[in-house]
Amino acid sequence: MSLNQTLVQGLASSSAIRKMFEEGNRRAQLYGADQVFDFSIGNPVFEPPAEVHAALVKLAQEDQPGSHRYMPNAGFPEVRAFLAGQLAQETGLGFDQNDILMTCGAGGGLNVALKTLLNAGDEVLVLAPYFVEYDAYIQNHGGLPVRVETTPNFRPDLAAIAQAITPRTKAMIINSPNNPTGAVYSAQELADLGRLLLQKSKEVGHWITLISDEPYKRIAYVDQVPSPFAAYPHSLVVTSYSKDLALPGERIGYLAVSPNHGERALLMQCAAVALRTLGFVNAPALWQRLLPLVGQARVDLAPYRTNRDVLVSGLRGFGYPVVEPEGAFYLFVKCPGDEASFIAAAQEKNLLLVPGSAFARAGYFRIAYCFATERVQKALPIFGQLLRELA
Q1: Hey, is 109 helix, strand or coil?
Q2: What is the CATH number of domain 5-48+300-390?
Q3: pLDDT digits (tens, 9 = 90+) for 24-40
């Protein structure tokens, strides 16, 4: 075969979400969109806030010469300074524009970070369950993903993390609020993790960089989503505006390094080169310039909270064991019986779900509830039917 063997072998698992999404589209054409409940992909139906539309109109009307030319690979200095100011205010740390790199979404940021950090054979810890693409991102740059199980309630297991760290451990990825579980790691959990990583970094003889993937940080139902910057000096954050501004198709985000990272300046210089050589070159100019104009705007969280409450209450009423999400717009629920049988039975009722095995935790299913509440309410009885039939 002339194709990349890793990609060919990874097709089955890496495309599980997209396959279900495409199946949902096929069924919508067959049965009608109102009869199909596709909760497979985190693709919000809600439109961006009004501030986004106003900013786009303003930028289009300015007709400023050079608006669409190249800028420094790291991004427009004034945009990076704006974001650094936001982070400084949130964390109390001395961020400046040189700590920010504009990226093509969080996925682009993760690939830039991993290319910057990894040598062939380096290991990256990931907490299961986790977003399926992490494995591919790590392998893209010669690294080896090392899965570490979380607790039954999807919390970090410090003993398991400590046992998984070896002299080849270069980084660890965390995701809070989490996809697929909705878990938000507390300040205490992050502080405990930070102490462990400091201890282990001394033992292995190099800094273990903590990479926090945060596209859902502003989709949260708790008062605060604690920052790893406060817990561990050798931290990176990658984020995007796909979720909180409902812009998943525009691919705009950033990478930020802690001002206290042991290799702060060199890391960001290398990251700018990585951004260019990976082929991103720079983040989209228009969407960079939009960010200071929209300020703290975000989508309305009320529909997400309502959908979460409807599902948690309804599923528990049917008898499903549910860990209530603290953020994001997903539920990760234990299957009643065999995972494959449950997913197939749901599909036959035009209910599209993603199997937990796609997130490295078999025996579960994920519901994406970033859809109109009436759709969620209409689909809810199907879960009760499934439980009764499979029982």
Answers
A1: helix
A2: 3.90.1150.10
A3: 777 767 666 678 899 99
